[in-house]
Write a structure and sequence with these properties.
- The protein is an all-alpha fold.
- It has two domains: about 60 residues, no CATH class; about 50 residues.
- The protein has five helices and no strands.
Length: about 120
């Protein structure tokens, strides 16, 4: 979310743009501040992890090696995705081809059946 660049203070647009920026800042604080997102984050952790797992996670965060490992989670996800996405792309391509092929076969069969009924 970006604030609008303020025009010169003597511009007739200045008051409106200033008000827009203030309203935008209020929305950011209302919905995106730590105070606003904290309950949802806590709920997500509680829903995902057991109390024992959360205790262990806190232990990991107090250890330099644990922090290092946890900080690399996003990087690991990126590496895994870079390996899997090409496979998924190939799957989607072949799956589409397979479906298209069978759709054509169905259409031909339906056409043949219609022609067969017409000749009888």
């Amino acid at each position: 979310m970006m604030l609008t660049v303020l025009p010169e203070s003597d511009s007739p647009l200045y008051p409106l743009t200033l008000e827009q920026n203030q309203q935008t800042e209020m929305l950011i604080r209302k919905y995106l501040s730590w105070e606003a997102v904290r309950p949802g984050v806590i709920h997500a952790y509680e829903k995902t992890y057991t109390d024992e797992e959360l205790d262990y996670l806190l232990e990991l965060l107090q250890d330099e090696r644990g922090r290092s490992i946890l900080s690399k989670t996003k990087l690991l996800e990126q590496h895994v995705n870079s390996q899997l996405l090409p496979l998924l792309d190939k799957f989607n391509e072949e799956f589409t081809e397979l479906n298209d092929s069978y759709e054509q076969k169905r259409e031909r069969l339906i056409q043949e059946l219609k022609e067969s009924e017409e000749t009888q």
